[in-house]
Every structure is written in structure tokens, then in C-alpha cells.
Amino acid sequence: MRAMLFERPGMPLRLVELPLPQPSRGELLIEVEACGVCRTDLHLIDGELPHPLLPVIPGHEIVGRVAACGADVTHMALGQRVGVPWLGWTCGTCGFCRSGRENLCDAARFTGYQINGGYAEYTVADARYCFPLADDAAAGDAAQLAPLLCAGLIGYRALRMAGAARRIGIYGFGAAAHIVAQVLRFQGREFDAYTRPGDLASQTFARSLGAAWAGGTDQAAPAPADAALIFAPAGALVPLALRRMEKGGTVICAGIHMSEIPAFPYDILWGERSIRSVANLTRRDGLEFLDLAPRIPLHTEIRRFPLAAANEALQQLRRGAFQGAAVLTMQD
Asked: How far apart are the first and last CA of the chain?
């Protein structure tokens, strides 16, 4: 099978031919149809995530079809469409796992980071962490579904942390933001979109998805937010968001990696404001969100790349060269 292999930080991915993997007990062999390209993949190849499996096949927004089932897998059928997210394995026995907080499991392993991922024609995944996906014209094709498996799921978990907030500031209007914006519009809530200063294309995109206001981070929305979702990995946005938020609100940091948060005065935190981070996802998040998505219905703005062009997709993502999400497809 063909796969894009990450061998060490700072080096481009390499297209290789590898043997077809085989599923072990409790696993699925999946023929990959599409795999989203996530900013976390950039953190991986830039060496910002510790202790990766090396070499490793990146990619954790996987959509494919079950090609084979390992022993003891009885709830999936051959040919069934499934999605594979970032959280790929947990111990199932620790206090976090037993209390429904498997996303915090200390032994957890992650797809495309410590487990081979979806930048390949086939992958193997723990069946416990594979989600059944809709397989009809209304759901969209595999490439349109792929961003839901991370950008959508992390955005949904972050939004849950915002509680009943009626006006939400979104910082960084990329793949996750353009999905959560549609959820907010469906729920009848207002949102403001903050982009890089001067990024008029992203601001226009945000308005097209229902933003009450859109502008650069060097500007301020006309009204304070009740909560803030930060998708950009820039720690300096945390005190900025605190200054633009009502008392009692929460700043939610939704990325797996963020640059250092600068010191800030206590008075912008005072008033029962709080700061929270989003760590991975739970299976409950996945089931809830993937049930909600077709009822909205969600539309993902995507740019397609063939598997062999993964390096170009990553560089375009780094430059902010497109709106929405990049997706690798296995059909060149």
C-alpha cells in the first residue's frame, strides 16, 4: 500500500510502499477513502509534540470502509463506512476511563501520532474508537465528512464547555471554526469571528456563515462575548479574549498545542471569568456530534489533494492559503 511517512521533525513526508497491515484482536482494517489535514499534523512535523512514534504515518481525520475485522469485533460489518478520530486507544481501566473521562487517560495513544494514521491507502484502528458514519448522498462524500473527525469534534467539545453562552467570540477562523459556526447558527446563538489582522478573506467567509461581526484581533467586536473559543495556537490570544469577555465567561483553548500565554493582570480574570483547555475527545462527544451533524446539516468547505501531495497540503495549511479544511483523497 502507499503511505506518506513522517520520519523526523523538520523533514517532509516521504511517499513509500508498505505491506498491508493486519488487524489484531479488537481492531479493524480500514480502506481509507479520505483523511483530513489538521493543524496538529503541523505541530507533529515541526517537532512540537513530544514522544511521537517514529517513523509514523500521520493523519487522524480518517474516513474509510471496513476491509477486515479482527477477532472479537462483532459490531462492525465489512464495507461499512467508519470514521477514525484523534483519540485512538485508552486503557479502559483507570479512574478517568471508568468515569467517562477517557480523553484524560494517562496511557492514551493517538491516531497519526503514536498509532499509524490515515495518510495511507489502508490503516488499522481500535474498533472501540471507530464511529459509524452515514453513507448516503445527503451526508456528503468521504472527503466532506473527514473534517468532522477532528475539527468538528474538537469544536463541538469546546462549545459544550461554553455552556449556555449566547454570544461567543471565535479566535482563528479555520477548519474547526467554520464547522462550529454552523452549529451556533443552528442553535440560534450569535458569534464574532477574530482573524489575523488584514485577513479579509477569512472575515468575509465568517460573515457568510452568519457571524454577527468579523474583524482582526487588533479590533474589538461591538459587544463583549459570554465565552471565547480559541482555535489558533497563539497564547497571546488568551488575555486578549479575557479583556473582551463578560464577567462569568469562559475562555476555552481548543488546540492541543499553544505558544506561551503571556502574563496578564488579575483584573481581567476577576469577575469569575475562567480559562479552560480542551483535551482530546470522548466517544460520547463523537456519537453526539455525528448524530447532530446531518440534522443541521453541516457543510464542510474543503480543498482536495491527492495522497502524494500531502506536503503541499500541509504547507498551504501553514500559509492559510484556503478557507475551511484540506483533505487528502486516495483516488489520485
From this structure: 14
Q: Assign residue 300 a region (left: φ > 0; alpha: ψ between -120 and 50; beta: otherwise).
A: beta
Asked if 181 and 175 count as a contact pair (C-beta separation under 8 A), the reply is no
Query: Cβ distance 188 to 210 under 8 Å?
Result: no
The rounded distance, in Å, linking the Cα atoms of 311 and 170 is 28
Global pTM?
A: 0.95
Spans of all domains in the chain: 2-149+301-329, 152-277
Q: What is the mean pLDDT of residues 167-183?
A: 97
pLDDT digits 0-9 by tens, 237-285 = 999 999 999 999 999 999 889 999 999 999 999 999 999 999 999 999 9
Checking if the pLDDT of 103 tops 80, the result is: yes
> What is the CATH architecture assignment of 152-277?
3-Layer(aba) Sandwich (3.40)
295-326: b (≥16 Cβ within 10 Å) or e? eeebebbbbebebebbeebbebbeeeebbbbb
- The arithmetic mean of pLDDT across residues 133-140, rounded, is 75
Residues 6+ apart with CB under 8 A from 295: none
Give the closest residue to 210 by CA, choosing from 227, 224, 189. Answer: 189
DSSP assignment, residue 166? S
Superfamily of domain 2-149+301-329: Medium-chain alcohol dehydrogenases, catalytic domain (3.90.180.10)
Q: What is the pLDDT of residue 255?
A: 87
Least Cα distance to 135 among 176, 183, 79, 179 occurs for 79
- What is the rounded distance in angstroms from the CA atom of residue 272 to the CA atom of residue 248? 5
